[in-house]
Amino acid sequence: MSPLLSLLSLADYLALPDQTSRAYFEVFWFQPTGEPAGPPAARSWLCLVSLGRANSVPLYGQPGEVIRFTRDFLEDDDKEYSVAVFKLFNQSGEPPVLALSAEQHADLRAVYEVLAREHHAPVPCFIILKALLKALVMNLIRLQEQPFTPQDLQGKRVYQFLLLVEAHYASQTLVGFYAAQMGISPKWLNKILQLNLQKTATQLVHERLLLEAKRELTIQERTIKEIAFRLGFEEPSYFARFFRKHTDSSPTEFQEQMFQIVSGIAPKGSV
Question: What pLDDT is recorded for position 155?
Fold first, then answer.
């Protein structure tokens, strides 16, 4: 099995020693065997976890599969595709979820089966795997109805900015830092982002910071004070103010709400 790409059952994924690794893009494909609990037309669900983020996806014990891949499977010379992938996996709020109809499920399944066949071949070909994975991801992008960013200098700038945010969101929140790293002015950076993503640099950094805060609070592996310091806040009170401004609830209230939701869906010992 290539460490760059893994196709696993949920059961095998749960047994991995590195399932908390942030080195992968991850696609969780839930395929319930019983009566669906979501939209009536949904045949299956996909939950997307981006590179560099902690996985807080509740694994309900339903049958399903996980697709994990590293940044090596993004093509450096195809910025249009790379930007679209980052946009697909980096929606604001909780991990992006796609509900598939029976027809969409069948179409995506056909692509997955070809990818799995090559992946499990005695000597899989990296170039073929890369092409097949790209075909699968392009289908996800189409399902999400995300228009591609034009493949030009602006697209490359967006991609560069998203990579910088992934690396520095917890320590750098000022637009000037990112603009300086990219060799352009803060005003021009904001113009590029607003044209392509309809958001400012500050909004995107804050969304990334807020998403990580929500994941940390959901996982509950650290205290709120520890989370605040880890995300670059000098005082827990500053973190609480930031969190309430963007969610209308305190970190404690959000953590309690998530605990009730997770406890209701997946009681202790059910997974």
Answer: 65
